[in-house]
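Example for tutorial group B:
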């Protein structure tokens, strides 16, 4: 079965998820824009999987080829300076990769979007979008269209949870995309399954479906949804977010209505490894360099749970 509309719906879902990532990451300061990196990961995952299935390779071989290609890509994105010829890892590659991924994990858990596109974050997203491209090709070629078209939308929902800004029209567009995905799969299946079934002699048309089965299925689905929601309500944290990520961007189990300190974002800029100047100042007058000091706003007080700006306005003169 050829899912022509399924391919269109799948790529539309992936593009929709990629558009949501635009709200989570800032623009790249140097090098290849992270958007192009993720687009390349999508195409690579889809192309490798499609080629393997078209050549009738075993599933584990296709999976292994994808895994090797993803590993090389992650090293190339996160720690290219530790590799030989940009692809072969060295003894320092995996330690450096661990540091990059640890930093990316901390920013993902506690950062306030949009954050700087650190190499570790881009590498993690490359794996996610590579997987979506591979599942798109596998699902449509292996007769699993819903896996292909719905996976990007599930990933989009996770990105939407991370984005704390008002969604606006994003919810409406999401409903339109998921509706298009379901209709696309249904139309593809209907086109390839067109025809009338009949019994033996005398030939009588066979009913396509029993009319009341749809209503019964809907009632059962609603009943299961309501019952499972009540049963699992106690498993969901009060903040509404899973424990792997801070629901507010703050550590210490803070949640609810939070006013973010605008200077918390300074950390995201300080950890940037680019050569962007922190600030530029012009000093006039006959002053010795040792007599010039710069005063910056910092989170200098700690209340046992989080850092904040202290109440003291005076700063002691640094000792020589």
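The residue assignment follows.
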């Amino acid at each position: 079965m050829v899912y022509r509309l399924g391919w269109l719906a799948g790529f539309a879902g992936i593009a929709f998820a990629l558009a949501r990532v635009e709200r989570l990451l800032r623009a790249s300061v140097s090098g290849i824009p992270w958007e192009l990196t993720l687009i390349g990961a999508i195409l690579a995952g889809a192309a490798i999987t499609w080629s393997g299935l078209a050549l009738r390779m075993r599933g584990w071989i296709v999976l292994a080829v994808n895994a090797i290609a993803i590993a090389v890509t992650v090293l190339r994105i996160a720690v290219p300076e530790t590799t030989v010829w940009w692809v072969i890892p060295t003894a320092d590659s995996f330690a450096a990769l661990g540091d990059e991924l640890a930093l990316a994990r901390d920013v993902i858990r506690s950062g306030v979007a949009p954050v700087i596109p650190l190499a570790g974050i881009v590498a993690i997203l490359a794996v996610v979008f590579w997987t979506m491209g591979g599942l798109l090709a596998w699902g449509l070629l292996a007769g699993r269209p819903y896996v292909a078209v719905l996976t990007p939308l599930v990933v989009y929902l996770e990105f939407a949870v991370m984005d704390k800004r008002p969604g606006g029209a994003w919810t409406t567009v999401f409903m339109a995309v998921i509706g298009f995905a379901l209709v696309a799969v249904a139309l593809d299946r209907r086109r390839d399954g067109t025809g009338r079934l009949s019994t033996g002699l005398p030939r009588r048309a066979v009913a396509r479906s029993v009319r009341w089965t749809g209503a019964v299925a809907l009632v059962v689905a609603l009943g299961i949804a309501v019952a499972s929601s009540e049963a699992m309500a106690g498993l969901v944290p009060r903040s509404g977010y899973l424990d792997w990520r801070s629901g507010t961007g703050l550590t210490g189990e803070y949640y609810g209505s939070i006013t973010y300190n605008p200077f918390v974002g300074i950390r995201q800029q300080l950890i940037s490894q680019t050569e962007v100047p922190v600030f530029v100042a012009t000093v006039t007058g006959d002053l010795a360099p040792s007599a010039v000091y710069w005063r910056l706003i910092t989170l200098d007080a700690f209340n046992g749970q989080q850092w904040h700006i202290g109440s003291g306005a005076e700063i002691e003169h640094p000792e020589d």
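The two ends are 78 Å apart (CA to CA). Compare this with the pattern of hydrophobic and polar residues in the output above.
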